[in-house]
């Protein structure tokens, strides 16, 4: 029986992320793909399971964001997301919590104010 031949693999990245500094403490990484109509935005916050003081605290905190924000009920938030064809999800791992928006590019300008409301006025 012959040994298999060893070949090296070349890592090919078709898209290079672009780093954008929004403020002194906030930065964003963009992967621009011009020919797609879909947009995904991940908001990443430090503070996952390692810093929680009670079981499931990090997960509950991030998932409760869509329960209401600045005068909007959970039902109203969900109606707006549904009307604009968007989905949101929230999760927490050991070190970070994540809030993700998936939408069509043409709806992004209508969804960003709602997402900002959810993130900062919950």
Count every helix, treating DSSP H or I runs of 4 or more residues as helices.
3
Count the beta strands. 7
Largest sheet: 3 strands, antiparallel
What low-confidence regions span 5 or more consecutive residues with pLDDT below 50?
none
Determine the strand fraction and express it as a percent band: 25-35%
**Radius of gyration based on Cα positions:** 19 Å
**Strand adjacency order, main sheet:** 3-7-6
What pattern of helices and strands is seen along the backbone?
EEEHEEHEEH
Question: Which geometry do the CA atoms define?
Answer: extended
Detailed description of the structure:
Helix content is 25%, strand content 30%. It has helices at residues 57-63, 74-83, 108-121; strands at residues 18-21, 27-30, 38-46, 68-69, 72-73, 87-92, 96-104. The strands form three sheets. Strands 3-7-6 form a three-stranded antiparallel sheet. The longest helix has 14 residues, at 108-121. The N and C termini lie far apart (65 Å).
Give a topology summary.
Elements: E1 18-21, E2 27-30, E3 38-46, H1 57-63, E4 68-69, E5 72-73, H2 74-83, E6 87-92, E7 96-104, H3 108-121
Antiparallel strand pairs: 1-2, 3-7, 4-5, 6-7
Give a short overview.
The protein has 122 residues and is α+β, with helices and mostly antiparallel strands.
Features:
122 residues; 25% helix; 3-stranded antiparallel sheet
